[in-house]
């Protein structure tokens, strides 16, 4: 029997857990569903990531409002993916921030990504009809943008750390508490989605840049918060191990003139013992292997995923 497409059959509601990582520093994890965060300034809140829809974002805001009623002055979006940005309108943020590279990706492929991601992960697309349209930033930056939090709360540094999960990922660093919000550049016991990635950059200097923060708290895109240097290092290295496992196995078949399907099966067999039980492993892997195969083919700029192309690749590899 054919495997159900992507995460279409995943209907189990996940439990949200709010963690306080320092004074006014919050992470909301959700058993492998996308994480979000928030940082209190003296007079305002900086929200980090939206959820997939306004309704899903409102659920997060309701939890956050148990901690602070300060207005959301800034909404920081680490990258352009639909399930991270399309609930932005619920925040009523003064400004929405993204890297310039992410803005370009919204312009180029935001519409297609919306259809693709909501098709792959329908459970996250709660009340999807409320999404007012694509989410556009009001502030963009190329490499770095700082937000002074006021009082003695320190500052947030938003930095483009190199191409990785997408061409525009930003890490968000809080100096006072040594907390890093890494977006989907690091996952904690959740499979990596690399369908829009630059595998070689990501596994190399981009993760080196992430690791160089020497964070005490690391909030990745999915999974639990890592605490203490040993755990944050382990989260980075576990992400790198997933990438290197793909690079090795897909590369072997590509170089030998094998087929995409052979590369996919070998990669799945190689990664499954360590990563197969993690959320979205079977969902992500066909898209991941296809993108890496494209990179080996010399396709620099990731091809755009459409709902139709999603189904084609799925049928080619997972059926
Ligand atoms: Zn993503």
UniProtKB/TrEMBL annotation:
InterPro entries in the cross-refs: Metallo-B-lactamas, NDM-1-like, RibonucZ/Hydroxyglut_hydro
Domain Metallo-beta-lactamase positions: 33-222
Entry-linked Gene3D superfamilies: Ribonuclease Z/Hydroxyacylglutathione hydrolase-like
Protein name: Beta-lactamase domain-containing protein
């Amino acid at each position: 029997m054919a495997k159900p497409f992507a995460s279409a059959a995943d209907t189990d509601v996940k439990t949200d857990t709010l963690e306080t990582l320092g004074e006014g520093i919050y992470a909301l994890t959700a058993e492998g569903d996308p994480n979000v965060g928030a940082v209190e300034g003296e007079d305002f809140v900086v929200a980090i990531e939206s959820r997939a829809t306004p309704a899903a974002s409102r659920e997060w805001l309701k939890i956050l409002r148990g901690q602070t009623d300060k207005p959301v002055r800034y909404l920081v979006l680490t990258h352009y993916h639909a399930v991270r940005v399309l609930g932005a309108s619920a925040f009523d943020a003064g400004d929405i921030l993204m890297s310039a590279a992410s803005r370009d990706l919204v312009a180029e492929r935001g519409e297609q990504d919306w259809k693709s991601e909501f098709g792959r992960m329908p459970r996250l697309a709660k009340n999807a009809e409320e999404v007012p349209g694509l989410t556009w930033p009001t502030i963009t930056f190329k490499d770095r943008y700082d937000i002074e939090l006021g009082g003695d709360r320190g500052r947030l540094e938003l930095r483009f750390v190199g191409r990785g999960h997408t061409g525009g990922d930003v890490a968000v660093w809080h100096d006072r508490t040594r907390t890093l919000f890494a977006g989907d550049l690091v996952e904690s016991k959740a499979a990596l989605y690399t369908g829009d990635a630059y595998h070689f950059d990501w596994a190399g200097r981009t993760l080196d840049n992430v690791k160089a923060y020497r964070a005490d708290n690391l909030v990745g895109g999915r999974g639990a918060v890592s605490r203490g240097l040993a755990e944050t290092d382990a989260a980075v290295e576990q992400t790198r191990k997933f990438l290197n496992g793909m690079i090795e196995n897909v590369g072997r078949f590509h170089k030998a003139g094998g087929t995409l399907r052979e590369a996919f099966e070998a990669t799945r067999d190689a990664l499954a013992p360590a990563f197969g039980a993690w959320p979205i492993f079977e969902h992500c892997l066909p898209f991941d292997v296809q993108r890496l195969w494209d990179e080996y083919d010399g396709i620099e700029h990731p091809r755009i995923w459409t709902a139709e192309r999603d189904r084609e690749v799925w049928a080619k590899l997972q059926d």
